[in-house]
Fold:
Amino acid sequence: MIALINHCCAQNAANGAIIQFHSFNGQLDAKSDTARKKFYYKDELNLQKGEMVLVKYSSAEYAVALFVRNMKGDTLGSVDIPKYYSTTGSHLAYLFKPASAGRYQFLFTSKDSLEKGKFTVHYANFDSIQKAFDTDWEFCQKLDYIMQHSATDFQFITGPKTPGFSLTNTRTTDYYLDDAAKCEIEYFTSDVYVSTFLEKMNLEKCIQRMKELDYDIRQCLSPQWKISTPRIEEVNEINKARFERETDYKLFGKPVDDHNEIHEKLNLKYSIRLMIEKNISGDYDLKIVLE
Structure:
């Protein structure tokens, strides 16, 4: 694998804030409301048509569970995590896409009966109508839009699973950086946005396309972006359940060093991909990859 260019940057804001974040801390105890022998905390959200919310709920003291209801009391969705780990606690993520605008109840409770303890809730709200992706945007606007979605692991722009078997649990997306580029979101140790600009071409064409893509990305870099120090990638990545209001992005890689006579003689084919993936610190790296 060959990657090119080294940059580090703070989040660009060409489109303004695409996703709204807010969070709070709470506690389940004897003063909490109860239902079915469980303590729970109720929060209500007003959601507009096309608005989605990603909830991350965690506790270091009990196994968490979540129920979502409409104001009539009908349960629209739920998730619970049956295990609690003494070192990391318990956490869940739930994406709620209401069928219509309205007020909805989020019930934060426990997997088991009458459990008590402190908890943290993070909300991320995305309005797919008010903050819709525009295919007529310039490249930099599209890149900024997709990179902002990395703060929520691309949950709001992830489509159904790609047909067929996939080791990386590949899923579709309709958010393209380039009309001719094939785009998908892969999940292995974390969600990775992948845009393939060239596929199965000779090395010279791929290197040229890589340089062109590098130039395009450089035009998007705001003044706060800076040159980063090249580093070795860690293989074992820790996927933490968390949100970042201000996510840092890095574009880094290794120098092109294996363009040699063997490649020319064997006429080997290569591909050019732009990848946005989470690193071991929880930030996202932006890479141009030749492989």
Observations:
- Residues 2-16+132-290 form one domain.
- Residues 1-12, 226-260 have pLDDT under 50 and may be disordered.
